Amino acid sequence: MLQRLGFRIAEDFKKWMPDAFVFALLLTVIVSVMALLWTDTSPLELTEAWYNGLWKLLKFGMQVVLILATGSAIALSPVIGKLIDQLAGKIKSPAIVYLSCVVLTCLCTLITWGLIPVMAVLARELAKRVKGVDYAYLVGCIYISFVPFVCGLSSSIPLLLNTEGNFLIEAELLDSVIGMESTLFDPLNITMTIFYLTGIPFIMWVMRPKGNQVKEMSTMIVQGESTEKQTVEEEAKSFELTPKSFSDKLNGSNILALIIVAMGSVFIVSNFIEKGANAINLNMIVFIFLILGMLLHGSPMRYVLAMKRACSNISGIVFQYPFYAGIMGIMKETGLGQAIAEWMSGYVTFETLPIASFFLGGIVNFAIPSAGGEWAVLGSPLIELAQNLGSGLSPAEYKDYVAFMAMSVAYGESLTNMVQPFFLLIVLPVMGAGVKIQARDVMGYVLLPFIFLFTVSAGIILFFSF
Questions:
Q1: Residues 186, 404: Cα–Cα separation, whole Å
Q2: CB–CB of 188/404 below 8 Å?
Q3: pTM of the prediction?
Q4: Which of 381, 413, 387, 333 has its CA nearest to residue 156?
């Protein structure tokens, strides 16, 4: 029943879901109208806020581009290629392809969502080797497995709360950091982690397409394109002169690459020794991927060619991120985000603030699909509200309450990523290369899983609230 329902929703979704860029433009218009109606912002001030915001995610956008590129380059290395071949040789059925991709991606995102490109390469290779795999559904499997990252080491909001001198401390809304024991290692987050690691594989297993519903990758190849290419090593050799020149020797120098790898490794190890888990941030993830990629490819030229391939299909991220940053600018500079939080204050109590924050995080995520950006807009007014509602709490109880509310925002934000195509831009550049597939082909498959995950997550938050 769920298989048929999921297939019907996926087919109907194609008629209504526009391209990811069109979705961003529609959101820009909707948020602009809300700002004009709900705040005292003039049309000129609105356009200024939008323009100023366009450039606010340039750093984050570049970090995402580099995570995607460096992660994909790692997946193109001979070592990872052999591991993928070995794994693919042991997986014979489409059902096991879906299940293994979901489980492995969920586990990887607990470390960092930056590993998604690697898992996308694995999924793509499995789809080429195993008959009967529905490719759009497999893309959906990878995409929905992004959810557990909110419970893991790269979750933006708990990392920010644990950062010395963060904007909440500077605003004197907090007197010190809130440690991981109150966020990531709290019983609420442990419960949510267990639910995601079991619930996501379960729902995607039950919904898997069968029979004539299946549309394999081989039927979606763009005319004139091929999924088979020279290996990076073969391409690197094709550039060499005969006989080998001095420049060829430099281009293929393992020694030069290893010197850089050694320098980077010393910094990475020393940084983790000094800071522990707090050393994990987007910059560190990119740097680790960069150094690891150079190590696995072994020579500068092979790494250059791997990065060239990895960067060949990232246009969606490059030009769409500024538009979402513009929406964030409207939310922040016009005061729309704060107005929404203040409006909510008239309807919540001490017990209901966490669940209200969960829904608020999910709704605002459509306009600001970045946990850090969303928290920058909502964090201050929500914590002011928490101060008023929790005035009788001890300092330790107050911090735990703020952590509970903040994590509720994070859960809501991460879940509604599934029903808007922004973060699908991390998966499609890898899995969509040379293949005729769009966001609308995928999004319908994650709607039912989203409803299931969102409903149970809300129930877990309510359970811990009372």
A1: 9
A2: yes
A3: 0.78
A4: 413
